[in-house]
Amino acid sequence: MRVLPLAYVIALGAGLGLVSARYAVAERPWFGRAQIGAWTTWPNGGARDIDPYMRAYLARGVHLPLGAGEGLELIAKADDAGQALDARCRYLVSGTTPPARGWSLDLADPTGRSLQPAAERASFTDAEIVRGERGGMRIVLATAPEAGNWLPLPPGGRFQLRLRLYDTPISSHAGELRPGALPRIARIDCR
User: Per-residue pLDDT tens for 44-77?
Assistant: First the structure.
């Protein structure tokens, strides 16, 4: 008689344990992150004293983090107004980056995997963009080709931007950055 309730409790415990473990490592953890305007970063993601949840997330093989002395990765899933990035819209990424030896900006799907657009261009680096008179960046994200610095978006759906700063002195104190020190993401229009 007691075997059935015991089996139920064990099955329920195992099921809840598996579901909670999957949920805990499906996304980057909420703790240990720094939110700077539209950009989010995990400064200790590549450090030696990484927390166990970030370690488990990285063990899933989604991507290889930058080491503590190598740089900093920032991710934006929304524009500066807080609206989720949608490929049906056009966006302008403009402004400057914090001091770094180099940087790259690319697109990824909502899970963090790089997008392979139909056009050859999938990302920009600091050496590839055409700069304005003041030296800042001005990159348009759209599905249709644009004049100047243009990154093609997929035909539809959500996406995220990944900005990687290489060999930057701010990697150890990224939480102290101000939103004005990072590129702005402005929605131009939607179709």
Answer: 666 677 776 776 766 766 666 666 667 788 889 9
Q: Which residues contact 44 (CB under 8 A, 6 or more apart)?
A: 32, 50, 51, 54, 68
Residue 9: inside a domain = no
> Which tokens sit at 9?
């409790």
Six-digit token pair at 188?
């131009």
Count of structural domains within the chain: 1
Eight-state DSSP code of residue 131? P
- The phi-psi region of residue 165 (left if phi > 0; otherwise alpha if psi is between -120 and 50; otherwise beta) is beta
Radius of gyration of the chain (CA): 20
Question: CB-based burial of residue 69 (10 Å sphere; 0-12 exposed, 13-18 middle, 19+ buried)?
Answer: exposed
Does 26 fall in a domain? no
Region for residue 69 given its phi and psi (left: phi exceeds 0; alpha: psi -120 to 50; beta: otherwise): alpha
pLDDT in tens, 135-189: 788 999 998 888 888 998 888 889 999 998 888 777 666 666 777 788 999 999 9
Contact 97, 165 (CB under 8 A): yes
Residue 5 lies in a domain: no
